[in-house]
């Protein structure tokens, strides 16, 4: 495990840009430290690092490695962790992965990692394990983390016309009274995606749920342009 982390650290430090780091940290509200490695060189580092991983790796080993990356101080490690896990084939997903996803969503939480996990891994997981996702939806309602709540609202973002509208309507009803920016934004975002193919349902939902403010503005963005 240490060898893989050491290899990655060596490459990130070589590409470190101390002039860019402060700007990246400011963009993330000072919540995280950065090496200052922008997207293009980071993706290149990730591809090389991934190609050097032994195959096959056990599920336990993969998640241990993800956790180690999550513990690292610089944010680039978490980006690489998310890129890697989102590249795993759905055939490799296991029902127990949900506990790891919950950990990642609940720790070092911000939109930059949460949204990528929720709309990719969690979204695919929900399709593979629908009954487990039913349970997750109910259990995460009792959690205090707005990031778990946001994940429930947006995990269907890439489903297009396969979106379960009944579930989305239910989730909007559950969370609409939470005025946190990232919750209201996620409600609007999820509705905006649906408006691409079912604008009438979106307009009806806005009215029936009495949505206003940020959620409504986000939901109506595409509709307003038509």
Structure description:
The chain is mostly helical and 226 residues long. It has helices at residues 2-14, 21-27, 39-51, 59-71, 75-86, 97-106, 111-128, 130-141, 146-154, 165-175, 181-195, 199-208, 213-219, 221-225. The model has no long low-confidence stretch (mean pLDDT 97). It is globular and about 55 Å long.
Structure, briefly:
The protein has 14 helices and no strands. The chain is mostly helical and 226 residues long. The radius of gyration is 19 Å and the shape is globular.
CATH architecture of the largest domain: Alpha Horseshoe
Largest β sheet strand count, sense and barrel closure: none
Mean pLDDT, to the nearest integer, reads 97
What order do the helices and strands follow?
A: HHHHHHHHHHHHHH
Distance between the termini: 53 Å
CATH class of the largest domain: Mainly Alpha
The total beta strand count reads: 0
Unreliable spans are none
Radius of gyration: 19 Å
Strand content: under 5%
Number of domains: 2
- Briefly note the CATH topology name of the largest domain: Leucine-rich Repeat Variant
Residues in helices, as a percent range:
55-70%
Overall 3D shape: globular
Q: How does the helix and strand content classify structurally?
A: mainly alpha
- Number of helices, where a helix is a run of at least 4 consecutive DSSP H or I residues: 14
Keywords summarizing the entry:
226 residues, mainly alpha, Leucine-rich Repeat Variant, 2 domains, globular
